[in-house]
């Protein structure tokens, strides 16, 4: 990308960081050039080495900090800076919330032309570490080496951890991750140690060979634990050898599963799952409701904050008990089941068929009888005929993926003319784009960002839309 930067224009001094960009980079200016600088935060004054340059903007890295931002703190994780997981750990949590709020405000007003003057304060997460219920680690025989690394041997080149940003084939070996509660760290470290000690090989991401490929750990608010070990090309007896070790060392595991994935990609959605011990699902619990979570099911990764998010969505919907609610992008029907007892009927639509099966089971195990679920691509399922068959909704709750809603879905929402739309989004930029389209018939009544992912730049945002009179 971009043009070669002449040596005398490569280094810039005294750049003041004035904002933070979507991907979490610090924003500065130099003459007409907008600068995006990795690991810089507003309030910093830094010296910069430019790495890429386009006509109006450039990307660079900090070579030294001239003046530290008051928002700067010491990152608590020794992997910070190399691991791509928690990019904002060098900022106080208060500052993280301030910039997330500011970001949502900016994109909604700039892209969505929304009046944000009555936007509510972001809801911070009570837990700012160990808040995730799911982590996926990758095995690799080519560990990412840092400058502090000692002499390496083939054994010490093995890694179990996370991808280094921008490198599909390099894995940072993780010793302790602050994102998931115990026994996550113990599990990962013990499995690695056992595999190395017993000569079970780690995957080669370029050559596509080796026994061990991925490790997925799910913990839950009920205390249940799911462990999925993904093998690629194990030698005879290695699956039993490793799985026996895990089962014996961690008897608390509720669901011990394995997969043999010999495809080029890591996704497990098309893979057969084998149960080694226990059952093939765990339970999550929210407000007395139980949710079955299978190895392929989507469940919000910060369970505690998901509860807060859903309460806000429910409060915005302000249900009286006689409404027909559409829950679009319902996943495993979590929001649908969460609001069901406050509505007459809830109709959920979702792309993934197995998630829809889970959604139905989740209604059943909770004795909920006023929900209906349909699987398929939203733009194909939510047709005029579908609306004629199920009735025009009084409230639409929509929680699309990062790409936002397909234009046909937005058009259908405009046609349905539900008095209220509650739009939950994990990407305020695409939400803003959709809000602009919805402004043909809707006005924004409430906006509340929610922080589901402390230490990262990600932010969730809930918007209440009311049909214009
Ligand atoms: C952000 S998740 C929301 C899930 C759910 N509301 C929850 O809170 O657990 C978005 C969901 O949209 C689904 N999805 C993505 N693209 C879709 C499409 N084109 N049609 C229907 N569903 C889709 C995904 O499978 C995922 O379950």
TrEMBL record:
Record-linked InterPro entries: MeTrfase_TrmA_AS, MeTrfase_TrmA_CS, NA-bd_OB-fold, SAM-dependent_MTases_sf, TRAM_dom, U5_MeTrfase_fam
Binding site for S-adenosyl-L-methionine: 300, 329, 350, 399
Tagged with keyword Transferase: yes
Active site: 426
Residue stretches making up the TRAM domain: 1-64
Keywords assigned: Methyltransferase, S-adenosyl-L-methionine, Transferase
SUPFAM superfamilies linked to this entry: Nucleic acid-binding proteins, S-adenosyl-L-methionine-dependent methyltransferases
PANTHER family per record: RNA M5U METHYLTRANSFERASE, TRNA (URACIL(54)-C(5))-METHYLTRANSFERASE
The family this protein is said to belong to: Belongs to the class I-like SAM-binding methyltransferase superfamily. RNA M5U methyltransferase family.
Protein name per UniProt: 23S rRNA (Uracil(1939)-C(5))-methyltransferase RlmD
Organism: Sphingobacterium thermophilum
High-level lineage: Bacteria, Pseudomonadati, Bacteroidota, Sphingobacteriia, Sphingobacteriales
């Amino acid at each position: 990308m971009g043009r070669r930067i002449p040596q005398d224009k490569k280094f810039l001094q005294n750049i003041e960081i004035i904002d933070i960009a979507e991907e979490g980079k610090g924003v500065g200016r130099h003459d007409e050039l907008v600068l995006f600088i990795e690991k810089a935060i507003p309030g910093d004054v830094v010296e910069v080495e430019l790495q890429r340059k386009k006509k109006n903007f450039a990307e660079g890295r900090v070579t030294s900090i001239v003046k530290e931002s008051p928002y700067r703190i010491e990152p608590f994780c020794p992997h910070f800076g190399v691991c791509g997981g928690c990019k904002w750990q060098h900022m106080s949590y208060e500052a993280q919330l301030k910039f997330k709020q500011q970001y949502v405000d900016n994109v909604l007003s700039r892209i969505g032309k929304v009046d944000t003057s009555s936007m509510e304060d972001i809801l911070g997460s009570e837990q700012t570490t160990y808040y995730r219920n799911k982590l996926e680690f990758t095995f690799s025989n080519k560990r990412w080496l840092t400058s502090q690394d000692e002499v390496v041997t083939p054994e010490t080149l093995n890694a179990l951890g996370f991808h280094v940003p921008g490198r599909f084939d390099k894995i940072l070996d993780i010793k302790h991750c602050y994102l998931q509660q115990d026994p996550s760290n113990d599990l990962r470290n013990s499995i690695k140690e056992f595999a190395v000690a017993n000569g079970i090989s780690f995957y080669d991401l370029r050559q596509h060979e080796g026994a061990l490929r991925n490790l997925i750990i799910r913990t839950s608010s009920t205390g249940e634990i799911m462990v999925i070990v993904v093998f690629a090309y194990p030698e005879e007896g290695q699956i039993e050898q490793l799985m026996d070790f895990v089962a014996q060392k961690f008897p608390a595991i509720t669901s011990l599963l394995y997969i043999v994935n010999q495809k080029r990609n890591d996704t497990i959605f098309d893979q057969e799952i084998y149960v080694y011990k226990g059952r093939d699902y765990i339970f999550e619990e929210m407000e007395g409701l139980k949710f079955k979570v299978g190895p392929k099911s989507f469940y919000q990764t910060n369970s505690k904050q998901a509860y807060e998010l859903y309460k806000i969505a429910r409060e915005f919907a302000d249900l009286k008990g006689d409404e027909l609610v559409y829950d679009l992008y319902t996943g495993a029907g979590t929001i649908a089941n969460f609001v069901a007892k406050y509505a007459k009927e809830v109709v959920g639509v979702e792309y993934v068929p197995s998630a829809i099966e889970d959604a139905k089971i989740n209604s059943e195990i909770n004795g909920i009888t006023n929900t209906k679920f349909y699987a398929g691509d939203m733009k194909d399922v939510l047709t005029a005929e579908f609306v004629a068959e199920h009735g025009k909704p009084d409230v639409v709750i929509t929680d699309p993926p990062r790409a936002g809603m397909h234009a046909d879905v937005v058009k259908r929402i405009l046609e349905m003319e539900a008095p209220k739309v509650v739009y939950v989004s994990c990407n305020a930029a695409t939400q803003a784009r959709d809000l602009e389209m919805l402004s043909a018939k809707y006005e924004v009544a409430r906006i509340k960002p929610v922080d589901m992912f402390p230490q990262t730049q990600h932010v969730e945002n809930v918007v209440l839309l009311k049909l214009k009179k």
